[in-house]
Amino acid sequence: MRKRREALLPSFKKIAAGVLVLSLLLPTTPALAVTQQDITKSKQALSATEKQLTDIQKEIDKANQELTINKALLPQRQAEYEKSEKQLAALMRNEYESGGDSLLVCLFSAKTPIQALSNMQSMRYVQVNKKKVLTEQRKAKEELEASTKAIETNAKKLEAQKAALAKIKVSQQSKLAKQVSELNSAASSAGAFAPGADISNIASSNSPKLQKFISIMIALCNDNSHGYSQSNRWGPNFDCSSSIIYSLRMAGLQTGSANYTGNMDVLCRYGWKKISSSSAGRGDILVCSSHAALYLGNGQTAEFHRDYDGRSGDSSGRESNVGKSWKPSSSYSYALRYTGN
């Protein structure tokens, strides 16, 4: 048996060595780049958490208001109960101490048997009524105490939920900030991509900057070496917004921190203004929550819109487009128009 185990050892060593070599030869899976969709989802998640926090705070405020009212009423209910309790005790003690004299007084002070019966009923009514009032007041006090306790318990649960959501919010804010930072970092390296000769010629021409922007965007869309990608969006592949931002930069126009569809309005700090998308004209940028395109007029656009094959470049010839827009300009949230020099 020992010889058999010893014979197996070289085999195990060979397998282990093979696994080690294989692991060294196989490429590691790279971390996926942050995309616009990632940031949009993170913002939506953060917005949902903030709404939950707002709703819970409203419930907490309501509970605190109810507690304030209940705690103000409790001393009053307690005082009413104690007063009735003392009155009933005094009544019962008086009867006990009189040894039934009060009953005899009721009987013999009456002028007729009917009056005597009436006196006895009145006396009995007072006793029963006092007990009933005391019972009702005790019940009201106990219900108020139970209600107060339930509200306090619920308020504590709400505070715990609020604290848990606050932690989630901090985590979501941190995640979003990291994603935006990564996207900004990728955007800042956009200029590292060397453009083709046609784009370089346009960029170095004496044409107005806006005309350069339009021409560069059209050239990008017409060059099949540039495909659509959200994970590698700063050249040679682009997505809807990075293609526009890249074209703006190559044309010599400032873009600031604009780096995805969600913050294209940053361009308003650099000579652009928001207008109605239905009023868009040639050279305006159409923007909605999930897409951006360069409007060329007469229902024509230049845009990157979809990855069809997952490969670099546009082998299908459909990932970017210059021509009739698949989305009417009026359906966009707004348009950006350049008003600078």
Automatic annotation (TrEMBL):
<keyword id="KW-0788">Thiol protease</keyword>
<feature type="domain" description="NlpC/P60">
    <location>
        <begin position="207"/>
        <end position="337"/>
    </location>
</feature>
<dbReference type="InterPro" id="IPR008044">
    <property type="entry name" value="Phage_lysin"/>
</dbReference>
<keyword id="KW-0378">Hydrolase</keyword>
<feature type="coiled-coil region">
    <location>
        <begin position="134"/>
        <end position="161"/>
    </location>
</feature>
<feature type="signal peptide">
    <location>
        <begin position="1"/>
        <end position="33"/>
    </location>
</feature>
<comment type="similarity">
    <text>Belongs to the peptidase C40 family.</text>
</comment>
<keyword id="KW-0645">Protease</keyword>
<protein>
    <submittedName>
        <fullName>Bacteriophage peptidoglycan hydrolase</fullName>
    </submittedName>
</protein>
<feature type="coiled-coil region">
    <location>
        <begin position="39"/>
        <end position="94"/>
    </location>
</feature>
<dbReference type="InterPro" id="IPR000064">
    <property type="entry name" value="NLP_P60_dom"/>
</dbReference>
<dbReference type="Pfam" id="PF05382">
    <property type="entry name" value="Amidase_5"/>
</dbReference>
<keyword id="KW-0175">Coiled coil</keyword>
<keyword id="KW-0732">Signal</keyword>
<dbReference type="GO" id="GO:0006508">
    <property type="term" value="P:proteolysis"/>
</dbReference>
<dbReference type="InterPro" id="IPR038765">
    <property type="entry name" value="Papain-like_cys_pep_sf"/>
</dbReference>
<dbReference type="GO" id="GO:0008234">
    <property type="term" value="F:cysteine-type peptidase activity"/>
</dbReference>
<feature type="region of interest" description="Disordered">
    <location>
        <begin position="307"/>
        <end position="329"/>
    </location>
</feature>
